[in-house]
Amino acid sequence: MSFFPCSCPLSCNKTRSECQKKSTHHQSEPSTSVSLLSQPSLPLVPSLSSPLQSSTVEHQCLATLTDHSSYVSSLALSRKSLFTGSSNGEIRVWPREQPFSSTGNIVGAGSGGVKSLVILGDRLISAHQDHKIRVWKIIDDSNKYKCVATLPTMNDRFTSLFSQKSYVEVRRHKKSTWVHHVDAVSSLALSQDGSLLYSASWDRSFKIWRASDFKCLESIEKAHDDAINAIVVSRDGFCYTGSGDKTIKVWIKKDKSHSLVATLKKHLSAVNALAVSEDGKVLYSGACDRSILVWERLSNGDGDDDELHMTVVGALRGHTKAIMCLAVASDLVLSGSADKSLRVWRRGLLEKDGYSCLAVLEGHTKPVKCLAVSVSGSGSDSNSDYSCMVYSGSLDLSVKVWNLRVSTV
């Protein structure tokens, strides 16, 4: 029996076993009753929010996609489509062209809620509450999809079944083969070149899979003391994991395995979301303590990763409840919260300018659970104007489509 704290999206302060007595899939009916009085104090780090705005943003909600029968838990974007995953295991695909369709075609359904989605070429990869990872591929021009693989693959399962060395202790007096996740797969990430797939789980482990044939290459067991809620990989290969144990860990691949190079301890409650800047130098972390911490990666300058460390430079504050999701696009940071709102942040031209909250997007009637964003125009230059499309999924069973136009004053 597991006695780890529950990893419900709004931190219900029960043990996982207590929460599971109420529901087999204990995120199917998330509580929205978290009050400010029950939340931890904000971390003792300086605020980076600046009242001086060097930018302005015009925003408009273009559409609300409501054809979901349960809450929207994950989003992914391809060049032409938006994919949405729901807590009942259903995956839908929506064309991104305007006017937006009010009905999304069903890609497929697993037996557990969809926790994360990523796009790899012509394949869609989904992580599920039932401990599995599924690979979907379009089978013809009619926009129909087929599940072409379930991870771990049959070959991985068979080869590990008969070897005693393949079994690891996952709980007290319980063992499983190392290629299996034994709790919900909470997050997926891809390496910069798309050759590796990373999966994180509430079983406290994360695994690395070869994308060409989905063979499990490595499993980091007991990577954290509690459930892992988020995993991201920077363009230069650093892997970050955020956990219910309030920490973020930094990993780097050395030879054929990943090694821990830093443990970040500033949050006062479970870490729910991570995002990394496009140049890989800045990490953003969101937690139930209502703060978004900004970390900068430092090294000794001679390429020795053992000397790498991260320092927290401050926090983005403004949300009144738990941070549920984060996304980075160009020089923007977007955050979704249990307070039902999204916030759009932009870093100033000078380091002393900090970050400005350019907009608060309101319209959802329940917590915002997931985000996806795409930029059009010259968003890489902080002196240029550009626009982006933002997609937000919520516990109110809807996805909202927002258009942002960012201008430099």
UniProtKB/TrEMBL annotation:
Pfam families: WD40. PROSITE patterns: WD_REPEATS_1 (PS00678), WD_REPEATS_2 (PS50082), WD_REPEATS_REGION (PS50294). WD repeats lie at residues 65-94, 178-219, 221-251, 264-296, 316-345. SUPFAM superfamilies: WD40 repeat-like. It comes from Brassica napus. Keywords: Repeat, WD repeat. The gene is BnaA09g29760D. This is (rape) hypothetical protein. InterPro entries: JINGUBANG-like, WD40/YVTN_repeat-like_dom_sf, WD40_PAC1, WD40_repeat_CS, WD40_repeat_dom_sf, WD40_rpt.
